[in-house]
Design goal:
By secondary structure, this protein is α+β, with helices and mostly antiparallel strands. Helix content is 37%, strand content 14%. Strands 6-8-7-12-13-11-9-10 form an 8-stranded mixed β-sheet. Strands 1-3-2 form a 3-stranded mixed β-sheet. The longest helix is centred in the C-terminal third of the chain and has 22 residues. 55% of the residues are buried.
Length: 488
């Protein structure tokens, strides 16, 4: 059962081939038997999961089954869950138990899901390798010498290892798509405002967006259906109707205009990934799509722009963690200044401190105009590039990452090299657009991803193209050898 997609599991549940309780036990057993070597979960909730599974079975017996009735899932440990630890992968919140649920968590509960637990992540979502977690790195199921990607590496690795059929992640600069690519699963970053941010611990408020992670585009459509929509608790939530994302999955690709940005190819991109992208383009072209070369001329400015704006917002958002109001408090402080210094110094890890320092610097009185305001102007130029492109095309296609997963420890001493791993994903967050990464092959036996980008609120187009591609390929069906066998 663990090899089935969410759509297939729903079919099995509806046919009575298994119960939600039986299904939940299978996944809990897999987590128990395998995850001690992978570190994908921070918290596992077996008692609550089995209770919710039994409730789902009772609803189905009464004919009251809802959209995702009885489907086990996992949440990134950045989403508040009532009565369950929400650590953000940080010592700062190592013992924080939220008194309420994030809106996304509530919506998935209402859709009938069963929560298996909370997944590991880079501390406060800051990182591209999942090596910045207070709880240790998440290993890549395809090669345990490799990183899983970040910051949603725990969620993507747990789906890849078949510890859960679906999970949630958050994406500030590629943190759903990049680890999805490195772990060989499908991950969707929705349009900014499509999914409520209420109850999601903030990193960079104008960039953060939650989204689904699963094996297939069809499964991501099911999860997005449950979590999308207006939330009056979130002032950035979009008042837009939610379409039936599954309805258009099988639409023909004939006449669909796909743009290939010339800036995404060439220097810096692994030649094997470029070949995989070109192979995918041929498949989509044979399915009727029209391929065009386009230019996103300000792409090269995305990294420096992001690393001014994101740290600035992080500096503001994380100022609340001071040892007084929220989070870790040092022992026996000498005075208030010592309390602040040691609580933050002991509570935060190295990467968080680095970004806090950068953010505080660019927001300081002498540098605000030169750095932060200038970065916002460049952000507008990057957004305009996309809008010009979408006048002539429907979808943008390119690599998700410049290379497959690198080895653990390879980039820890070189932050700039780590930041460049997100060169193809960051501009999407700066523009607030929806984007998806889908499995596109392997390089040196490690997965690589293909990224699709659409215009605002056109997640349906992304899911349609990805689903059609997945009908013509089997990359999404591949399972890491060590996790193929059932735990039963």
């Amino acid at each position: 059962m663990h090899t089935k997609t969410i759509a297939e599991l729903l079919n099995s549940l509806n046919k009575g081939e298994c119960s939600s309780e039986e299904l939940t036990k299978i996944y809990l057993d897999r987590i128990k038997n395998y995850d001690k070597n992978m570190n994908t979960f921070i918290t596992v909730t077996p008692d609550a999961a089995l209770k919710d599974a039994r409730a789902a079975d009772q609803r189905r017996q009464k004919g009251e089954a809802v959209l995702l009735n009885g489907i086990p899932i996992a949440h990134k440990d950045l989403l508040c869950t009532k009565g369950i630890k929400t650590t953000c992968g940080s010592n700062m919140l190592h013992n924080f138990i939220s008194p309420y649920d994030a809106t996304l968590v509530t919506k998935l509960k209402e859709a009938g899901t069963v929560l298996l637990g909370k997944t590991n992540m880079d501390e406060f979502a800051m990182g591209s390798s999942n090596e910045n977690s207070f709880y240790g790195p998440v290993l890549n199921p395809w090669d345990t010498a490799a990183v899983s990607g970040g910051s949603s590496g725990g969620s993507t690795a747990s789906v890849a290892a078949r510890f859960t059929p679906g999970a949630t992640g958050t994406d500030t600069g590629g943190s759903i798509r990049q680890p999805a690519a490195l772990c060989g699963v499908t991950g969707l970053k929705p349009t900014y405002g499509r999914v409520s941010r209420y109850g999601m611990v903030a990193f960079a408020s104008s960039l953060d967006q939650a989204g689904p992670i699963a094996k297939t585009a069809e499964d991501c459509a099911l999860l997005l259906q449950a979590i999308a929509g207006l939330d009056i608790k979130d002032s950035t939530s979009a008042d837009k109707s939610v379409p039936d994302y599954r309805a258009a999955l099988n639409d023909s690709l004939a006449g669909l205009r796909i743009g290939l940005p010339k800036e995404f190819f060439g220097k810096g991109l692994d030649p094997s990934i470029e070949k995989s992208i070109q192979d995918a383009v041929k498949i989509l072209e044979n399915a009727g799509a029209i391929i065009k070369e386009i230019s996103l001329s300000n792409t090269y400015l995305a990294i420096p722009t992001y690393y001014v704006i994101a740290p600035a917002e992080c500096s503001s958002n994380l100022s609340r963690f001071d040892g007084v109001r929220f989070g870790y408090r040092c022992e026996n402080p000498k005075n208030l200044e010592d309390l602040y210094k040691r609580s933050r110094g002991e509570g935060f890890g190295a990467e968080v401190k680095r970004r806090l320092l950068m953010g505080t610097y660019v927001l300081s009185a002498g540098y605000y105009d030169s750095y932060y305001l200038q970065a916002q102007r460049v952000r507008k130029l990057i957004t305009q590039d996309f809008q010009e492109a979408f006048k002539d095309i429907d979808i943008i296609l390119g690599p998700t990452t410049p290379a497959p997963a690198f080895n653990l420890g390879d980039k820890l001493k070189d932050p700039v090299s780590m930041y460049l791993c997100d060169i193809y994903t960051i501009s999407v967050n700066l523009a607030g657009l929806p984007a998806l990464s889908m499995p596109g092959g392997f390089v040196n036996n490690r997965p690589i991803g293909i990224q699709l980008i659409a215009n605002y609120f056109e997640e349906g187009k992304l899911l349609n193209v990805a689903h059609q591609f997945q009908q013509l390929t089997d990359w999404h069906k591949k399972i890491p050898t060590a996790f193929e066998e059932s735990s039963k």
